[in-house]
Amino acid sequence: MAGVLQVLVLLVLLAAVWRPLGDWMARVHTDERDWRLELGIYRLVGVDPRSEQRASTYAVAILAFSFAGIVLLYLLQRLQTLLPWSFDRGTVEPGIAFNTAISFVTNTNWQSYVPETTLGHAVQMAGLTVQNFVSAAVGMAVAVALVRGFVRSRTDRLGNAWVDIVRGCTRVLLPIAGVAAVALVATGVVMSLRAGVDVVGPDGRPSTIALAPTASQESIKELGTNGGGIFNANSAHPFENPNPVSNLLETFLLLVIPVSLTRTFGRMVGSMRQGVSLLAVMAGLWGAMLAVIWTAEARTASFAGANLEGKETRFGIPASALWANATTGTSTGAVNSMHDSFSAFGGGGALVNMLFSEMTPGGVGTGLYSILVVAIVAVFLAGLMVGRTPEYLGKRLGRREVTCAVVVVLTMPALVLGGTGLAIALPSTRDAMTNSGPHGLSEVLYAYASAANNNGSAFAGLTVTSGFFQTTLGIAMLLGRFLPIVAVLALAGLLARRPRVEPRPGTLSTGTPLFSVLVAGTVVLVATITFLPALALSPLAEGLT
Amino acid sequence: MTAPPVVPAAHRSPAEAEQLHAGRTGRAVGAGAFRPRQLLESLPTALRKLDPRRQARNPVMFVVWVGSVVVTVAAILDPTVFAWSIAVWLWLTVVFANLAEAVAEGRGRAQADALRATRTDTVAHLVDGRAVPATELRVDDRVVVEAGQTIPGDGEIVEGIATVDESAITGESAPVVRESGGDLSSVTGGTTVLSDRIVIRITAKPGESFVDRMIALVEGAQRQKTPNEIALTILLSALTIVFLVAVVTLQPMAAYSGGEQSLVVLVALLVCLIPTTIGALLSAIGIAGMDRLVQRNVLATSGRAVEAAGDVSTLLLDKTGTITYGNRRATALHPLPGVDVAELAEIARLASLADTTPEGRSIVELCAREYGLPVEASATEAAAEFVPFSATTRMSGVDMDDGDGRELRKGATSAVLAWLDDDTDRARLEAIATAIAERGGTPLVVAYVRDLLGYSTKDRSRGGALGVVELSDVVKPGIAERFGELRAMGIKTVMITGDNPVTARAIAAESGVDDVLAEATPEDKLALIRSEQAGGRMVAMTGDGTNDAPALAQADVGVAMNSGTAAAKEAGNMVDLDSDPTKLIGVVEVGKQMLVTRGALTTFSLANDLAKYFAILPAMFLALYPQLGALNIMGLATPESAILSAVVFNALIIVALIPLALRGVRFRPSSADRLLRRNMLVYGLGGVIVPFVGIVGIDLVVRLVPGIG
């Protein structure tokens, strides 16, 4: 009952914020004026905020910015000893530094290290927290560029990547994260620059409980669908997520922007029906997967001798299921309970959420552009069936548009299946796995699904510190992030050049319930036909006993 | 005020034209019956197409081809009934795909042969007296063709007039008139001159004539993929790649799980998953689309044009011949006050006697019917000098040779008044004319003068305007419903007419057309097409005159009438051999049907995968994880029979769908949402269910085979 109430409160909160936040984000990205703070930033980096970029320039800006972020983050970790608040945690070793740099810049926030013992507060704040902001802003910028491609016609300009990134930070992420951080502190989330407190345990032995500037990172960790914890236990740690109120607030934060972006989209294309129909797809699939995970967890736990492993006893099964569904449905990856310990179908549900390619509702920006691309594929197939060259939002979909869409849709399955196949073929992988059999395969599959989808949640149970995993997961994160981004921007460029055709009775109408069913069907179909064999050998084989 | 017929009168009687409409543009889009024997006849071609170089053009089927080779090698190395069965059925899958294409091409070839029959060993007689084979003619050669001779190549008449039998190309037995100058000057190689003698300037190189290009297209030799086909091929190739990755990476996962799979099983899984059904039928659908147009006597110069026809959102339709019957008919006489209607009738008849246009004939007939005047001209009347209609005078009539020097004219109000240089009756004439125009009719003012130089407005005895003949358009029955359907399909119809706006709107209201372009000049048409295209709409039109050429070229689908000029035919991307503008609507339907067929079969193909997974996955891993037997909901006998059944189904479904691919899925004009819902239900849901039934059925047979069941 309390579980249902939690979901209802969450939904009411999201519904209340959807309109104002969605409209605000649309205004942010169509506003002609700059804030003084922003002008200062533009002057500092030498950008003319009024100049617009072509798709290629936009993409180069995004890639260059991200690459610079990776180098900077790598150097910060390697030079940690020179920084304040490093508490003798030493230099981060190259493999971990490489993987972590990629992980945070790609909005994955996969963690192959133990934060409390590896990173000091300087790297956490100046490195990871900064990337939490800008990587989310990059995702939003790419989504906005794609929407502009639909809105504009006969132009090759998509806006200015620098302006979009800066505004995403100054006008959306920073204000909300700031307020949320204060709210989190109020619920009891820790905010401290001390290394830790020395305590004497109940057994009489002294130990140190680590402290960190948590609230400031926690808020953007959820809001930016990042997910990298400042503590190893992530949001299961009482300092990150002390009580049901903070738990609910954090769940809300990680859903709020991806959900509200559907309104931004509807506003920008001038038809709220279009935004609502995509929201319906997200909500429908999200709700269905919540039911799967919740049922699976609740049923397992009710057996005699109850499988309490993996249950967040402070919050209960509903809050664990709700969080797991929200964190894998968005590309967040923060956890308040360990998915490895879920039942076969519960963990499988979290895995499937990622294999849907993170669009229910997906990451900040990435969710919107991913679902738009799937909508394009759906419209292409269905559009042929009404006897016309398919159109979506007044843009005719030809050979090149389909090529771009297909690159976006196929990158992830290729990375996940390729990575898993390669890893599982290596004898050394067996040693890194805690479990054997189907569950072991699930661990590996989950790791690559998490990396390629820039989710970052871990099934745990798999030790990924070896050079092989650090490298291949790093590559999966990089390609899983930037191949789709480049293809999406190319798509945006193609769309912007096309004339906008006004919709007519003869064209497939989008923004209808039938269209929502089509898009949802395409999401499920693509995931099913590509992953069913692999899933049959992992969660299915495990669960169907 | 009045306007001439915009389109030169069709060279056949209205009755004949009507027969054609009924016969060739039937309601439902369909094609000739598919004969199962065609499959056998095409088998040799299908086997020749096994050449890997030809397979490589189709990525999906190329994967099947490679898979067949791999499984065959595996079967040779480790011969089992199962391996050989799979090998045979994989090869059959490739052969069936080839068969689909071969059958489609075979049907095209029949059309091509009929066209080719027109290209005989004609001897061309050059103007300088030399005789050369038709194949050695060059562009700009001038040849003489006399009665009974076959025209050696495409060209235009530079001298003379002749009746020509074009039945070899059009199937239409009534001869047509071709003459130099104007819009009726083009002739097609292979047609026969029936009377008179003409000099033709050859306009096409041998081997590059219109018919030659058509033969190449319908035979599929020069078939280029259309834009949507390319986009679909990309999607299908991408899916194939993903399935390839899924199957290749499945092996290490299976090995890890302790159930390594044989190469034969993996290839079988791959072939069942990749979209072979649509991959096999894709090119057949394209060829069949062209073919269906040819069966309607429309020749498209490219598949792209056929596809574009499906995308058309604006149809420019000539009023005459499309919306109304080709010719307006005289229906009433309106004398001016003080003029006896008998006098008007007499003058109107005299002015029209020598006028052989249907309008002219109808005036004579009206006068005969209503006022008892003779139909035939007397000797004196026949001696009168005919003054034909011209665009500058906008009048026609006769100059009598009866000693009176009477000149009789009928034509547009303003033109006749200008000729008379007399405004006395303008107001009254215009009142009558406006009333007629509002009814959708065309007013034709009748006037005469005795000795024009001495004519004075004061002296009525010397002549003047007498009154108005009302010509009425008869809107074709059923056309309003047709436009309603087009509207539901999202297609806007625009009536093009030379009529004045008032007349045009009256006819538009009666016929239910969406919009009207009145007093249309070729420039107006071009401007209209450009403005529609600027709004992202694709435009189709028909045309036949040289002045239509720019608009035909600008339109996305330009259907030139075969009776039209060479310039028009060159500018358009289709030619209607029957010269029937109504067919434009049918052409659009064929284009749409082609797209729908592709989409429907793609959906069907993808939906099939679900059942195949349910057949193959438990079969692969049952030994490893017995609990996966829960997925064997079809109750297939053994793992071998399950996999073989899926492969056999995958092959047979191609053959089963060949008739559908050739005929095209049923297309009924309706709204996009209705079409989508229906096709999703039939081909989406049907695609999920059919293979479950099919695989179970095949399994019942296959399980009886020793070594499988």
How would you describe the overall organization of this protein?
The complex is a heterodimer of chains A (545) and B (709). Chain A has 545 residues and is mainly α. Chain A folds into 2 domains: 262 residues, no CATH class; 182 residues, no CATH class. Chain A is built from 18 helices and 4 strands. In chain A, the strands form 2 sheets. A two-stranded antiparallel sheet of chain A has the order 1-2. A two-stranded antiparallel ribbon of chain A has the order 3-4. In chain A, helix 10 packs across helix 11 and helix 16 packs across helix 17. The relative contact order of chain A is 0.13. In chain B, strands 10-22-21-20-11-18-19 form a 7-stranded mixed β-sheet, sandwiched between helices. The longest helix of chain B has 39 residues. Chain B has 709 residues and is α+β, with helices and mostly antiparallel strands. Chain B has 4 domains: 260 residues, no CATH class; 69 residues, Calcium-transporting ATPase, cytoplasmic transduction domain A (Distorted Sandwich); 127 residues, Rossmann fold (3-Layer(aba) Sandwich), CATH 3.40.50.1000; 151 residues, Calcium-transporting ATPase, cytoplasmic domain N (3-Layer(aba) Sandwich). Chain A: Belongs to the KdpA family. Chain A: This is Potassium-transporting ATPase potassium-binding subunit.
Structural topology:
The complex is a heterodimer of chains A (545) and B (709).
Chain A: H1 2-28, H2 36-45, H3 55-78, H4 94-105, H5 115-118, H6 121-151, H7 161-187, E1 196-200, E2 206-210, H8 214-223, H9 244-269, H10 272-301, H11 317-329, H12 344-355, H13 366-384, E3 391-392, E4 395-396, H14 399-425, H15 427-432, H16 437-452, H17 467-497, H18 513-543
Chain B: H1 14-24, H2 37-41, H3 43-48, H4 52-55, H5 59-77, H6 81-116, E1 123-126, E2 131-133, E3 142-146, E4 155-159, E5 161-165, H7 167-170, E6 176-179, E7 186-187, E8 192-195, E9 197-202, H8 210-219, H9 227-257, H10 263-273, H11 276-295, E10 298-300, H12 303-311, E11 312-318, H13 319-323, E12 329-335, H14 341-353, H15 358-371, H16 379-382, E13 385-387, E14 395-399, E15 406-411, H17 413-420, H18 426-438, E16 441-450, E17 463-472, H19 479-488, E18 492-496, H20 501-511, E19 515-517, H21 522-534, E20 538-543, H22 549-554, E21 557-561, H23 566-571, E22 574-576, H24 583-621, H25 639-663, H26 672-702
Parallel strand pairs in B: 11-18, 11-20, 18-19, 20-21, 21-22
Antiparallel strand pairs in B: 1-2, 1-3, 3-9, 4-7, 4-9, 5-6, 5-8, 10-22, 12-17, 13-14, 14-15, 15-16, 16-17
